[in-house]
Design brief:
By secondary structure, the protein is an alpha/beta fold. About 40% of the residues lie in helices and about 15% in strands. Helix 1 (about 15-30) crosses helix 6. The structure holds 4-nitrophenyl phosphate. 4-nitrophenyl phosphate binds near residues 10 and 123.
């Protein structure tokens, strides 16, 4: 079982997008039972709110539902619970260590560091561009799944 927590600031735009894209990807690959996948925000600003319509509508184009997801804040205990804690931008990584403490077990990553790009995913809450967020998230999740397969975390 590989346990992955995607993390952004508000948990209404980018990290839920990554959560549901990754869930869809592993389902299509027939590997659903091998994963626990969730998302959280470093801020409590959006706590309890549903996924942003920009993310919801973008994923609907691909037949992916975000029904039932509401924003939660990252908790210190999540560090023990998950194997991979994956931020969307550098700022999230600071937020993760602020809440969880130092990354002593090397669990904290930035999503696009699994790709050749090695950069932040910009925040569509500010940019309004959910198309580029989707492209980035899809590329990051594909690279993450390839990494997990190659690294023998999976069969
Ligand atoms: P997210 O976008 O981190 O991708 O979910 C944001 C959502 C809300 C806020 C900031 C970013 N906010 O400041 O409330």
């Amino acid at each position: 079982m590989v346990k992955i927590l995607f993390v952004c600031l508000g948990n209404i735009c980018r990290s839920p997008m990554a959560e549901f894209v990754m869930k869809d990807m592993v389902k299509v690959a027939g590997m659903e039972s091998e994963f626990l996948i969730a998302s959280a925000g470093t801020s409590n600003e959006e706590y309890g709110n549903p996924v942003h319509p920009g993310t919801r509508n973008k994923l609907r184009e691909y037949g992916i539902s975000v029904a039932g997801k509401t924003a939660v804040q990252l908790q210190r205990r999540d560090y023990e619970k998950y194997d991979y804690i994956i931020g969307m931008e550098q700022r999230n990584l600071s937020g993760i260590t602020r809440i969880c403490g130092a990354d002593t077990e090397g669990k904290v990553y930035r999503l696009l560091d699994f790709t050749e790009q090695g950069r932040d995913i910009s925040d569509p809450w500010f940019t309004g561009n959910f198309d580029s967020t989707y492209e980035d998230v899809r590329e990051g999740c594909e690279a993450l799944l390839a990494y997990l397969r190659k690294g023998n975390d999976l069969e």
